[in-house]
Amino acid sequence: MKYSRIGGTGSYLPEKVLLNSDLEKIVDTTDQWIRERTGIAQRHIAAEGETTADLAEAAARNALEAANLQANDVDLIIVATTTPDCVFPSVACLLQQRLGVTNSSPAFDVQAVCAGFAYALGIADNFVRAGTARCALVIGAETFSRILNWEDRNTCVLFGDGAGAVVITASDSPGIHSTHLHADGRYEELLHVPEGVSRGYDAVRQQQAFVQMKGSEVFRMAVSKLREVVDETLAANDLDKSELDWLVPHQANIRIIKATARKLDMSMDKVVLTVQDHGNTSAASIPLALDTAVRDGRIKRGDKLLLEGFGGGFTWGSALITY
Ligand code: ACO
User: Fold this and answer.
1) Could you list the residue range(s) of the whole structural domain that residue 273 is in?
2) How confident is the chain (323 residues) per 10-residue block, as mean pLDDT?
3) 114 Cβ inside 6 Å of ligand 1
4) For the whole prediction, is pTM greater than 0.85?
5) Which of 43, 49, 54, 12 is nearest to 284 (CA)?
6) Ligand 1 centre distance from Cα of residue 66 (Å)
7) Are 184 and 159 in the same domain?
């Protein structure tokens, strides 16, 4: 079996919903501005004490159930996250413990911000193709609300919390046709959380440990890099854009998503949109969107999906999948 395929999907969103009208009471913004500039109407926010591992666990259990598999069938866990519970153990190891995976298989986190799920999927696919894993749990999970400055209207209106998961199994046919991962580290100043453990995470510096973004520059770069990566993905598979059934994009901004759809000549009813309900859940957004469209019956077995995401780093990536 030299390919991997998606055996099942799952997701989880925290109970609490924060509406744009709630944000109007916190910062100088309006529901109209947020909807028009981003497409977001609401987002979910983790409860006090609810962590990334909690969200990841619920999504993972969901995906295992959909794939009809047990915890000990899993021989690889990769969690894409920017907001781990603690410095270590990784969320993946916390999850391995909670799910009761006792077969000593590898478990680790991947940090590529909003492109994290594309990275995790690419890594898992390569493990399966190499024959070193047969059943991988690949998760994007975030409590991004914990790294937001709730006084900064430029960022706090954009993000939400959640988790999405897929189970990847070895297969005779694709499945995952190809994954394409990229990074360009020269743009740190445009999108970052500039503090952290090794820079000295004292009480004063912790005040700056929030997402800072130059939105319009990031916007332009995202549109341009996503255009490149969708071309690269189609070319690598000798596929015409008309052969795609669904675009499952990272959900940062409806205007970025529409630009990619235009590039692919796809009508918006072939694009899975969750940005209005979830906001930008960073690494969780692609698997959350995928699970939403699988569960509501839009995405069917045999459909050709193009997944893509762009995030801090900068990092970006894509995957072409037959579901
Ligand atoms: N409410 C009201 N006004 C606002 C708000 C707000 N919440 N936020 C910004 N504004 C104002 C700005 O202050 C600015 O006012 P000014 O002209 O008086 O200075 C005005 O709105 C326009 O600001 P822009 O930044 O030019 O607006 P833009 O149309 O670019 O939209 C946005 C901003 C939504 C952030 C957009 O640029 C965007 O989506 N960027 C990309 C985000 C992204 O893809 N990030 C990557 C993934 S995230 C990750 O990896 C962590």
Assistant:
1) 178-322
2) 94 98 98 98 98 98 98 98 97 98 97 98 98 98 97 97 98 97 98 89 75 97 98 98 98 98 97 98 98 98 98 98 98
3) yes
4) yes
5) 12
6) 38
7) no
